[in-house]
Amino acid sequence: QKQLVESGGGLVQAGGSLRLSCVASGRAFNSIMAWFRQAPGKEQEFVAAISWKGGNIYYGDSVKGRFTISRDNVKDTIYLQMNSLKPEDAAVYYCAAASSVDAWAVSQPAQYEYWGQGTQVTVSF
């Protein structure tokens, strides 16, 4: 059983930066990993995904150019560097893992078997 634990959330002013981390434990880490987010009253939104070896990276349209996903397979950890944060980026951010996902489906939450508990990101004006 794979377990995912996120950290790094917090309160930041608009224009600032945060880096989220997600540590995976349990079964082998050779999975596609992703970040999703959910704000109150809104649907879950795809943020970014990265393949096992990091060769394939995907971003949601709203974060392209501002967020960067990366992974360290030695540490079984993925990261989300968030720059130029906006108030609309405020949400609970979730880490997710899937054994395999077709490229066209990486943004679909239902494709991911494992989820972390989430970490809150708050962006003030």
Topology:
Blueprint: E1 3-7, E2 10-13, E3 18-25, E4 32-38, E5 45-50, E6 57-59, E7 67-72, E8 77-82, E9 91-98, E10 114-115, E11 119-124
Helix content: under 10%
Q: Nearest-angstrom radius of gyration?
A: 13 Å
Share in β-strands: over 45%
**Count of helices?**
0
Number of strands: 11
Largest β sheet strand count, sense and barrel closure? 7 strands, mixed
Class per helix and strand makeup: mainly beta
Summarize the structure.
This protein has 125 residues and is an all-beta fold.
How would you characterize the overall build of this protein?
- By secondary structure, the chain is an all-beta fold.
- Helices cover 0% and strands 49% of the residues.
- The chain is built from no helices and eleven strands.
- Strands 2, 4, 5, 6, 9, 10 and 11 form a seven-stranded mixed sheet that branches. A four-stranded antiparallel sheet has the order 1-3-8-7, with no helix packed on it.
- A hairpin with a 4-residue loop joins strand 7 and strand 8.
- The protein is globular.
- The N and C termini lie far apart (40 Å).
Task: Give a quick set of tags describing it.
11 strands, 4-stranded antiparallel β-sheet, 49% strand, mainly beta, 125 residues
